[in-house]
Amino acid sequence: QVQLVESGGGLVQAGGSLRLSCAASGIIFSINDMGWYRQAPGKQRELVAAITSGGSTNYADSVKGRFTISRDNAKKMVYLQMNSLKPDDTALYYCNAGVKTLAKYLEVWGQGTLVTVSS
Predict the structure, then answer these.
(1) Residue 87: predicted pLDDT
(2) Chain-centre distance of CA 102, in angstroms?
(3) Which DSSP state fits 29?
(4) How far apart are CA 75 and CA 89, in angstroms?
């Protein structure tokens, strides 16, 4: 069974920084795109940033210039460096990955890590 486990969330003041990490585990042949999504109370889940296996990145307009996504393919990990945090960044952040096992392709989600930005 493939799992994604996030870490690094917490409470931070506006203007501060956090680094989220997500580790993939299980019987994995390869990982395609990886990404971070977030869901604030009363809002739909939205894409924050994504990265392909080759390192191409894509960001939501609201985080461009402040957040940086990166990955370590050897460690099967993806990271989200978040700088200049704003109260609007408060949300539950989820890791997502397209994983190829020996038998099939799966879209896998983590359980989420909470980021709270105080004003």
Answers:
(1) 97
(2) 24
(3) S
(4) 27
